Amino acid sequence: MSDTIELAVTRYRPEQDTQPWEQRYTVPCSDDMSVLDALNYIKDALDPSLSHRWSCRMAICGSCGVMVNGEPKLSCKTFLRDYREAGVLEVRALDNLPVERDLVADISGVVEHIEAVKPWLIRHSEPPVDTAHSQTPAQMARYHAFSQCINCALCYAACPQFGRNPAFLGPAALTLAQRYNLDSRDEGSSERMPWLNAEEGVWSCTFVGYCSEVCPKDVDPASAINRGKVASDINYGVNLFRLLRGKGDA
Amino acid sequence: MRKPWQPQQPRNWWLRNPAYRRYMLREATALPLLLYTLLLLAGIVQFSRGEAAFATWLSWLQTPAGLLLQGIALAAALLHAVTWVALVPKILVIDSDRLRIDPRHVLRAHQLGALAGNLGLIVATLWLLWPTGGA
Amino acid sequence: MQGYARAAALCVLGGANAMNQQQADIVIVGGGGAGLRAAIAAAESNPGLDILLLSKVYPMRSHTVAAEGGCAGVIQAHDSLDAHFDDTVAGGDWLCDQDVVDYFVRHATEENLRLEHWGCPWSRKPDGSINVRAFGGMQIERTWFAADKTGFHILHTLFQTSLKYPGIRRCDEYFCTDLLVEDGHCAGLLAIDMRSGEQTLIAASAVILATGGAARVYRYNTNGGIVTGDGMALAYRQGVPLRDMEFVQYHPTGLPGSGILITEAARGEGGVLTNREGYRYLQDYGLGPETPPGQPQNKQMELGPRDRLSQAFWHEEQAGRTVATERGAAVHLDLRHLGEQHIQERLPFIRDLARTYINVDAVHEPIPVRPTAHYTMGGIQTDRHTATCLPGLYAVGECASVGLHGANRLGSNSLAELSVFGRLAGEQAAERAAQGLAVDPQRLRPQAEAQAAEREALRRANGPERLAVLRDEMAGAMEAGIGIFRVPAQMTATVEKIAELKARYQQLGLKDGSHAFNTEWLQAIELGFLLDVAEAMSHAALARQESRGSHQRPEDFPARNDALFLRHSLARQQQGGATEVSWQDVVITRSAPGERHYGGKATGEAGR
Hints:
The structure holds three protein chains of three kinds.
Chain A lengths: L3 E8 L9 E8 L6 H12 L18 E4 L2 E4 L13 E5 L6 E3 L2 E2 L2 H9 L20 H8 L9 H5 L1 H5 L5 H12 L7 H9 L12 H5 L6 H29 L1
Chain B lengths: L17 H11 L1 H20 L1 H11 L2 H28 L11 H27 L6
Helix pairs in contact in B: 2-3, 2-4, 4-5
Chain C lengths: L1 H4 L4 E5 L2 E13 L3 H13 L5 E5 L15 E2 L8 H11 L6 H20 L14 E2 L9 E2 L5 H13 L5 E5 L1 E9 L2 E9 L4 E12 L20 H7 L5 E2 L4 E7 L10 H4 L3 E3 L31 H13 L4 E3 L2 E7 L5 H7 L1 H11 L8 E10 L2 E3 L11 E3 L4 E2 L11 H22 L6 H19 L7 H15 L6 H18 L13 H25 L18 H4 L1 E7 L5 E7 L23
Parallel strand pairs in C: 2-3, 2-10, 3-7, 10-18, 17-19
Antiparallel strand pairs in C: 1-2, 4-6, 5-6, 8-9, 9-10, 11-17, 11-20, 12-16, 13-15, 14-15, 15-16, 20-21
């Protein structure tokens, strides 16, 4: 098939532009061409000044997230064939994030949120160097889905609460906290609890649930966050009980 | 030489895609329920003012406006209950070394619980209000 | 000493050009598995050090993320370090430095366990202990795995663990363009802050290159767009030799067209390769006898080494027995007999990839696959402690040639290499940094400014040549001349073509003159790196007049020649720019070169 499709790309060049604007490109369209292939075609053949991020082409590195017709998508895993009916593809940088240039969103804030929740295995004591912790497949299954996050930030583009308040730790960071909290080898959930409990933690989530719909890796961050609310509630109850008992003893 | 563009969340963000519209519909069920609560409150106030006032209130319930409000409130309550119960398996996950319950069973238990609770309420109400029953 | 090094970034206005300036004890270029492991090792061995991890992408984007199958390490009771040693040395066709292989096999398991302690979700047996799977060229199962996303989990585990060390700070999306050498020592580097386009001078006591491979010199490859041989070219331009560059591994199972990787674990779990007649052709290439589908035998049939499997495909294609697909010739990787449950548990990513990119469900249909360029066995020459011949410069991971892989790497040895030698590089660099050898950044400014001016000139280049055209011509020439089988006329043509492209590169014209996230500019610098690497590869290939491992010359030198070529090739860029190839002896400690036995011959007398 030698048909074509039109891409309406939102451009923003900080050195020239005061605000974003739309540029249209006509690209070839075949059944196995992804939106990333189309963007690379534009870059190589039509307009080398278009900037976008990409690397692995196989939906694992998380670089190439963009909005396609209003939905957050990995451009390497989104295919032109699915938009033939629509005729035009609108492509812009991920929503809710500052735009560095063209399709390049500034994800440094997201990465800072991920760093904040202590996303590493916390142990009170190190095991001997020559032995592994035991962990059964059933124990691994409890956190496994939450460990599949590729940090592509599509969920941040999908989250209206993050759009309203960029201080909200957001789906990926809170999911990562839960990933470690639910790991049978981890002993650090109490150290992460202040982040879950914080104003910017789980309670800023209103369960819109769109983050889980757009996740390309089926991580289900909405579930992780709302299970975090349960954990936060239990933590509150336990603390209250301790406080009251403490007073009773005095 | 950086000059990132700072996007503003548009006021109508919630109209931008179906997922947001579904979410807003779910959240908006609170409004009819609020109105219905005010309606019940008005009923109590009227009741305290005497039989005639209460009768006026009761007759208003049967006007088209009253019926419409009650119909919308019922639909909203049902929508809220159904969507909320559907989310339960994502929130209440019972899975530990000692106890594991299939999420499908958690969902089913909540659906049955909601159904039983509501039916129980209806039965109890009917029993209380039935001319020959109650006190 | 380290306190003074912990200087905040300061902007110094030097003449017309503003240049940012930073100082650190150690700068690591590259945030993949090797770079992260090195950073952690340096921070653990000396918590006072200021360690700067600089990468052109956020660390979790690094191509370690795409490794699928697994990571080697002896753990079963009936396995031994000697067996892992023998498999690696024979797999590398005796071009491995055996002291390095010894060190590697002794430390691989320890490093895998450390990753476990840091949270890596290694797949487990029902009793909660570590599970291992079979892999090509390994006589016993010793490949640790995390389903079929092993590299992804290793990378994210290392990235997340690196966050707990206050000594490690990062420059994300900084693109290193030049190394700075003062008094014969590597004293820092020059980098572009991609977001602003500003150039930054970073002075350091030690620089570790961990920039990964260079398979983007080929048209069809399994690599991400970022895998452009940056570190190799940076070192090469400073006169550091690139070693064994002629050895490029073709992975036997990539998706036709895109080259997307279908892991060797698919065969380790029991997948079989068939030609258009449904025949398991590997038995015709010294890898038989045929094993029952779903019951793979180590070192037999589909579990032969990658070089042999890719070469067998080439012969099948010549004989017209491959399957024609709309994306070119392929053979079938058949997993159907494994059943949906096993595929979903062990190979979920593969199933997803095949479904997404070629619309094939591996549960119901065979996956069409073909060999695609995958891995550079060679790289920056280092000693067995990861130090290059340029004091202060270390190299580790795929960009380096520490002497582990020889003429053909065994699958799952490279992920283990990242940890084993990443740690070593970090410790070595930390030791050097503690001696306080840092050069005053002011002394580096003149050369940094000269190099920065060159980069600026490239940004404004307005010649007639087009970037994408040069890149595609290079990739096509490498595919034709330095592919699975190498014939003399085509090799010579490729050497000439690369020289021509390097000349035309000087006539490049760029359309985008801006600074902020100017990816055209960065791609042009990358193309310069790729051309240098392609030059080293093609010259080394021409110079090695024998067939060994992944370097096969069936027409003019079809046999291995230990008398002349049991040696590493060293490609060095001379002062005038010409490439010279010289030779370095291989370290042989206990395994004399012998015949590589796979298939039925492998049993009983593996390697020795």
